[in-house]
Amino acid sequence: MQPAAALNTRLLNNSIPESFWPLMPATPADLFALLDRLGITTATVEHPPLFSVEESRHLRGEIPGAHTKNLFLVDRKDRLFLVCAEESAAIDLKHLHRTIGASGRLSFGKAEAMRAALGIEPGAVTPFAAMNDGGKRVSVVIDRALLARDPLNFHPLVNTRTTRIAAADLVRFLQAVGHPPQIVAASGPGEESKP
C-alpha cells in the first residue's frame, strides 16, 4: 500500500498534521486516534470474528444502537460504492444504481478491489475504511433511514470489534477524510434482504 499522502493533504485543512498519518492501510488504533483528534466520542466492544449480518445477530451480544450492513458494490464502469444501511433494510440492487448515479446495475465488488481501495478484508466492510481511500475511488452512500437511528454500529476496520458512533459524527468523520457521503433513500420499508 502507498503512504497516505493524498489523504494527508486533504486533512491538513481540518488541522490534522501530516505527521499523524501512518502508512496505509490504517489500523483500528489509527482510526481511534483520528476519531479522538476530531473530537468524536465512540465506544467499542470486542467479540468473536463476525462475517455476515446473520452471524452478527447471534454472536455480537447486546450492543445498543442500530446495527448495519455495508455493501461494497461496483457498477459496469468499475466505479466503486460503499452502501451503508440498517442490517434489516431491504436494498434493491436492481434499481439502486438510478438513485446513486451509478452506470448500470450494481454488483458486489471483488475482495481484491476492496483490499486495494479500502484496505480491509471481507467481513470487515465499514465506512471507517474511507480513511484508507486516498485516491477517492469509493463513493460512500448512506441510507437516509439509517441516519434517523442513533447511535450506529460499525466494525472499526476489523470484524472482531464493533464501534458505536453518533450518526452526525459518522457524517463528520466521512467529511473529514474527504468522502462526504451521498445520503439517499436506498432502502424500502419492511422487508428484510440478505446481501
Structure description:
It is built from seven helices and ten strands. The chain is globular. It has one domain: YbaK protein. Strands 1, 2, 3, 5, 6, 7, 8 and 9 form an eight-stranded mixed beta sheet that branches. A two-stranded antiparallel ribbon has the order 4-10. Mean pLDDT is 84; it is low at 1-22 and 190-195. The longest helix has 10 residues, at 28-37. The protein has helices at 5-12, 28-37, 53-59, 93-100, 111-118, 144-147, 167-176, and strands at residues 43-46, 66-74, 80-86, 90-91, 107-108, 138-143, 152-154, 161-165, 182-184, 187-188. With 195 residues, it is an alpha/beta fold.
List keywords for this structure.
195 residues; two-stranded antiparallel sheet; YbaK protein; eight-stranded mixed sheet
Which structural class matches the secondary elements? alpha/beta
Detail the poorly predicted runs. 1-22, 190-195
CATH architecture: Alpha-Beta Complex
Number of helices: 7
According to CATH, the homologous superfamily is YbaK/aminoacyl-tRNA synthetase-associated domain
The count of domains is 1
Radius of gyration: 16 Å
CATH class: Alpha Beta
Shape: globular
Taking the alpha carbons of the first and last residues, their distance comes to 28 Å
Strand/helix succession: HHEHEEEHEHEHEEHEE
Largest sheet: 8 strands, mixed
Strand element count = 10
Write the CATH fold name.
YbaK protein
What does the average pLDDT come to?
84
Strand content bin: 15-25%
Percentage of residues in helical conformation: 25-40%
